[in-house]
Amino acid sequence: MPLPKTEYLSDSWKDGIFANKVVFCTGGAGTICSAQVRALVHLGANACIIGRNVEKTERVAKDIATARPGAKVIGIGSVDVRKFEDLQKAVERCVKELGGIDFVIAGAAGNFLASIEQLSVNAFKSVMDIDVLGSYNTLKATLPYLRESATKHRMDTKTLQPSPIGTGGRIIFVSATIHYRGMPFQTHVSVAKAGIDALSHSVAIEYGPRGMTSNIIAPGPIAQTEGLERLLPSDALEAYTKAQPLGRFGHVRDIADATVYLFSDTGSYVTGQTLVVDGANWRMSAGGASGGSLSYPDFLLSGDDVPNVTGKKSKL
């Protein structure tokens, strides 16, 4: 049974605006990225989602396809974004079966809570490789098709009229806000996300003259996601919710709507930017990873390890 539209898309958008377009998404089986892709598919796109787990990725692809009758959604599992060859093969299959690539969402990421003392060199490298190298590999593998789509869909700069066949040649990097002010137990992710942001800015500058746009979506705390459940201690949930400027967490639909904005005609002159979708969360002094049983600085000074972290504590 198709998921109700209200769960992943607002009523602001016109049906069919992404007709005959193709979106390629790494991390596409995740809670947030699957909602982004589902919204695009509902509005006319076909899609290819990439993941590590074969069964999960294929299952989510079939589920996303129910968003629109006749939609084509391919799920390609067993893809490691750290391996460029894996992405090349996935891109080749996407292009062969769907005809090209117009939009890319680089959403694959790794995260867990760990202090610097607890964070091993290998664990730090793993997050950097998945987030930064994985985003770069995604860009490199899809770049020829993004450039082709950008050329085909350029806006007429004299009349300011969009291409009659819609938009294309656009990439979104999914980042975060934790590196804006810093957050305990998230050093590895902060460094990785800062790298992703810099990558997106460079893409905007180098490929803007070719008609491509590159932007960042930085989600804040989004309800019912693996990330929020993993990073926010359960004993801090009620107080943390109450402390939000809007008095609530975000919804995956908020991220999906932001994605539609950037990929549609509304985002034609938006590039090199970061769209923060967090309800002003990052402007508050308290961080999600430092609440409840992980209260800052008491937990750090205790010398205890953050629970549920795989691997051994690093030796200084």
TrEMBL record:
GO terms for biological process: fatty acid catabolic process. Keywords: NADP, Oxidoreductase. It is an enzyme of class 1 (oxidoreductase). Its EC number is 1.3.1.124. The keyword NADP applies. One of its GO terms (molecular function) is 2,4-dienoyl-CoA reductase (NADPH) activity. InterPro entries: DECR2-like, NAD(P)-bd_dom_sf, SDR_fam. Pfam families: adh_short_C2. It comes from the Eukaryota. GO terms for cellular component: peroxisome. It catalyses: a (2E,4Z)-dienoyl-CoA + NADPH + H(+) = a 4,5-saturated-(3E)-enoyl-CoA + NADP(+); a (2E,4E)-dienoyl-CoA + NADPH + H(+) = a 4,5-saturated-(3E)-enoyl-CoA + NADP(+). PANTHER family: PEROXISOMAL 2,4-DIENOYL-COA REDUCTASE (PTHR43296), PEROXISOMAL 2,4-DIENOYL-COA REDUCTASE [(3E)-ENOYL-COA-PRODUCING] (PTHR43296:SF2). This is 2,4-dienoyl-CoA reductase [(3E)-enoyl-CoA-producing]. It comes from Penicillium roqueforti (strain FM164).
